[in-house]
Structures are given as structure tokens and as C-alpha cells.
Design goal:
The protein is mainly alpha-helical. The protein folds into two domains: 12-69, no CATH class; 71-146, no CATH class. It has helices at 13-22, 26-45, 49-67, 72-89, 99-117, 121-133, 136-145.
Length: 146
């Protein structure tokens, strides 16, 4: 039987972050999210949108793990990551090509709406900014999944 970190050993220090995050360590989950977001930003800056999209997907999983711990700030970050990923997949169009991006945006709106209804000012601000940016059907879809 291999040691717990051997399967990811080729990843160097990231192997320890993965191990700790898998064990529920919130700071490791946040570190993984931050690394994936930085990699996404770096890839986008050099015009490598395929890699940027891959890192956005990675960031989504890390963000989901962190948000599952129940802290509002991590839920806001999950919503932000979902919006970033939706930008790669396309959104707002009523074609089937935009379905997944629209789903991600609707989930982000639903998360932020729940937080805003509990008095989270960052979430309320984000919802207002999104209302200026995204089509009304995204908000309707968010109500349907909330």
C-alpha cells in the first residue's frame, strides 16, 4: 500500500496541499483555490484560454471544497469562480451552446442571493453589479434552483 502522499508525489509541494485539503483542512483548500486562480489569470494574460479554462475548472473544485465548510467569504469566492468559469464557457445566449455557462451564472446568483438575504454586504454588492451585466433570464433561472 502506498503512503497517502505518494500518488501525488510528482506534484511536489502541491501534494501536501492536496492531502491536507482532502482531509478537510480549510487553509489548504483555500491555498489550492488561490493557486488555481493565479494560474488561470496567468494563462489568460498570455492568451492561453484553453489552459485558463482548465485552471478555472480546477479553481471551481477547490472553491467548492472551501465553501462547503460554511464560511460566507468562501461562498462569495465560489460565486466569483463560477462567474469566471462561465466567461470561458459562454453565457446569456439562449442557445444550447451557452447552457452550461448560464447554469454556472444562475448558481452564482443563487449563492449570492442567499448570502445577501442574510445581510452579507459583499454578496449584495455583487448581485447589484451582476444585475447590470447579465440578462434577466439568469436571475429567473437562479430563483428556480434556489
Amino acid at each position: 500500500m502506498m503512503a497517502a502522499d505518494d500518488a501525488n508525489g510528482a506534484l511536489g509541494d502541491l501534494a501536501f496541499i492536496i492531502r491536507d485539503a482532502a482531509g478537510g483542512d480549510l487553509e489548504a483548500q483555500r491555498a489550492g483555490r488561490a493557486m488555481a486562480l493565479q494560474d488561470m489569470s496567468t494563462a489568460a494574460a498570455r492568451g492561453d484560454y484553453a489552459m485558463g479554462q482548465g485552471h478555472a475548472m480546477e479553481a471551481m473544485f477547490w472553491a467548492r471544497f472551501a465553501a462547503s465548510q460554511g464560511h460566507d467569504d468562501d461562498a462569495v469566492m465560489l460565486a466569483a469562480v463560477l462567474v469566471s468559469l462561465a466567461e470561458y464557457w459562454g453565457y446569456d445566449r439562449r442557445s444550447a451552446d451557452a447552457a452550461w455557462g448560464n447554469d454556472l451564472l444562475a448558481e452564482a446568483v443563487a449563492i449570492l442571493d442567499r448570502l445577501a438575504s442574510r445581510g452579507n454586504e459583499a454578496a449584495a454588492t455583487a448581485i447589484n453589479e451582476m444585475a447590470d451585466r447579465f440578462a434577466p433570464h439568469i436571475f429567473q433561472q437562479a430563483k428556480e434552483i434556489a
